[in-house]
Design brief:
single chain; about 200 residues; alpha+beta; Arc Repressor Mutant, subunit A; 3-stranded antiparallel β-sheet; two-stranded antiparallel ribbon; 8 helices; 5 strands; about 45% helix; about 15% strand; rod-shaped
């Protein structure tokens, strides 16, 4: 009988602690100076009570980073337990997915000024291949188009310059480097030639 009274007294302390906030068993143990084993035993006893007379319920879950195991958050009350939803099914709440969506939105914002995939990758902190995948999806959705092609300074292939808008992609020019060398001189070329001829 004495053990029963002690148990009820400890259960009352637990219920008073989680009356206004949801805590894990480890947090309850630390605040009430009880062993985790004792808290777990009392919690199991409370959760086994009939639903109508229940005094404790699972109010939520916390994803455990070190051990990658969900932790129950307990709160006083007579409510149904909140079921745990695996991270794979919580795309909107998965921190990795949230960060990926933020990067995608950042790329779209940066394309207010036309840029190449290499420039975008340097600004958002992603690999060029990943940025190209995102740009390919945006192009398929009609949000981004290829505005121009840029030649590298020395060697290499042309880089697409992306911009916002549902417009046709600019076709890639073959032999662009050779054509740029044989392009028509600028309008200032005759004046420059005349000045050179006037020199002694």
């Amino acid at each position: 009988m004495a053990k029963h009274k002690v148990a009820e007294r400890q259960i009352a302390r637990i219920l008073a602690l989680v009356e206004h906030e949801a805590l894990s068993a480890i947090e309850i143990s630390a605040r009430l100076f009880l062993s985790v084993t004792s808290v777990g035993r009392f919690v199991a006893r409370l959760l086994a009570e009939p639903l109508r007379a229940r005094r404790l319920y699972i109010a939520g879950w916390r994803d455990g980073v070190p051990i990658n195991r969900p932790t129950r958050l307990l709160r006083a009350g007579c409510q149904r337990d909140v079921e745990y939803v695996p991270m794979a099914k919580r795309k909107g709440r998965n921190p990795l997915h949230v960060e990926a969506d933020r990067k995608r939105a950042e790329i779209l914002e940066l394309l207010v000024m036309p840029q190449t995939s290499q420039q975008l990758a340097a600004r958002v902190g992603l690999t060029p291949n990943r940025v190209n995948d995102i740009l390919r999806q945006y192009r398929a959705a009609g949000q981004v188009h290829i505005k121009a092609w840029m030649l590298p300074v020395y060697r290499g292939s042309q880089s697409a310059v992306y911009a916002l808008g549902n417009l046709p992609d600019k076709p890639r020019v073959r032999d662009a480097r050779r054509k740029s060398r044989t392009a028509r001189p600028s309008a200032f070329a005759p004046a420059i030639g005349a000045l050179m001829g006037m020199q002694p």
